[in-house]
Design brief:
Layout: H1 2-9, E1 13-15, E2 21-24, H2 25-63, H3 68-100, H4 109-132, H5 136-165, H6 168-171, H7 178-202, H8 212-228, E3 234-235, E4 241-242, H9 248-257, H10 259-276, H11 283-289, H12 291-295, H13 313-339, H14 355-362, H15 365-380, H16 384-395
Antiparallel strand pairs: 1-2, 3-4
């Protein structure tokens, strides 16, 4: 193990009574500290960047409106570049922590190198194209898509090795019996069927196929949602968190391009979430808590084409967000009941609880997360210019001018 050998060269080890090495002190201190520290840095950096861009935008608007288009172009490039940097930095730390814990061994070294190269090249490309390029938005989208692709390859490698060890249940102190095992797979299959029904029944009028714009926007929205997901003031012990409107870009994407493409983007985002804060003990539980749960975010665009609500775009978005959040909640609840029933204890007394009641209560954080998205989304959809542009993309007329 070349990487572990190099790591041992500058890390102290912990040994048990038999003299066997149990782990690195490095893994218990540095990576955790770096993740917490960088999360705080990225949070305040995002706030500072938003304030600065807002102030400069107001100044440019009143001083010289003719330059607003150039300012918006630069602002978008900076925002995407920041999202790419956050994504790569935090993913690299997650992979490092998995290596240190001995879960995925040296195979994680290569994805980490790829992600490191992406953040350097992506940031450089975004900066250069913002200064000289004719279409910085397109270049920024390509950079973001490259990061997403690299992250997915890394995820599949890591997850494949981890599940092959068969230690998921053992490492988390959980035993899934035959009945629970069957119900996990049945639940995953039923919800996948629900996804296909939503995509092909409610999305039958959506524009078919992915064009360059829909792919570019998907990459940017996934990267931005993933970066925002690290701004989580509330984190739960067995996974899950309340974030600062991290799902807003994905929901807006579904509103603009339809539920089919929204479900696909959510599916990709769910795979990335499995890298960010993995809590995986079973293949079907992985599907329920990550790709399936977040694929349902694509349902947020389901009400976008309801003509009777055209005068109330905030209501269109809000209803879609509630539906998407509820379906995501259902997926998490089924995972909690059949995979984490042994964790069903009362938080204060320590007494055993009904797994259904425990899972329903534990996963209620989803609604707090969605509530924040709805508040911010209503403000965004109060802009007539934004709604007009979003609907042009959705309905396919004069999309270029949007």
């Amino acid at each position: 193990m070349l990487f572990n050998t190099l790591l041992a060269a500058y890390s102290d080890t912990v040994t048990n009574a038999d003299g066997d090495v149990e782990g690195f002190v490095y893994s218990d201190v540095w990576t955790s500290y770096a993740k917490d520290g960088l999360s705080a840095v990225f949070l305040w950096s995002a706030v500072a960047l938003a304030v600065i861009l807002l102030a400069v935008g107001i100044f440019v608007y009143f001083k010289n409106r003719d330059r607003m288009k150039n300012f918006i172009t630069v602002a978008v490039a900076l925002g995407v570049g920041f999202a790419v940097a956050v994504t790569c930095a935090m993913l690299a730390l997650e992979f490092m922590e998995m290596v240190e814990e001995g879960v995925v061994f040296d195979l994680v070294l290569y994805p980490t190198v790829v992600l490191g190269a992406c953040v350097v090249l992506g940031a450089a490309a975004v900066y250069i194209c913002s200064l000289f390029g004719k279409n910085p938005f397109k270049i920024a989208a390509i950079c973001a898509l490259s990061v997403v692709g690299a992250a997915l390859v890394a995820l599949l490698v890591c997850l494949g090795v981890y599940l092959a060890t068969g230690q998921g249940e053992h490492n988390n102190g959980v035993t899934i019996d035959l009945t629970e095992n069957v119900l996990l797979y049945v639940s995953a299959a039923v919800l996948v069927g629900g996804l296909f029904f939503i995509a092909f029944f409610f999305g039958r009028k959506d524009k078919k196929g992915f064009d360059s714009k829909s792919i570019a926007y998907a990459a940017i929205c996934i990267a931005m949602s993933f970066a925002l997901s690290y701004l989580a003031p509330i984190k739960l012990p067995q996974g899950g968190s309340v974030t600062i409107a991290s799902l807003l870009p994905l929901m807006v994407y579904s509103y603009m391009f339809g539920v089919k493409k929204g479900i696909f983007a959510g599916f990709i985002y769910g795979l990335l979430q499995a890298v960010q804060d993995p809590w995986i003990i079973h293949p079907a539980q992985f599907l329920l808590d990550y790709p399936i749960a977040f694929a349902f975010i694509g349902a947020a665009g389901l009400f976008a084409n309801v003509k009777k609500l055209d005068k109330f775009p905030q209501l269109q978005f809000g209803l879609g967000a509630i539906l998407a959040g509820t379906l995501r909640y259902l997926s998490h609840v089924l995972s909690g009941v059949f995979a984490f029933s042994e964790y069903a204890f009362h938080w204060t007394t320590g007494e055993a609880m009904n797994p259904w009641l425990y899972s329903l209560g534990y996963n209620s954080f989803v609604f707090a997360d969605v509530a924040i998205v709805i508040v911010v989304g209503v403000l965004v959809f109060s802009s007539r210019a934004f709604v007009k542009a979003a609907r042009k993309y959705r309905r396919g007329d004069d999309a270029e001018s949007a």
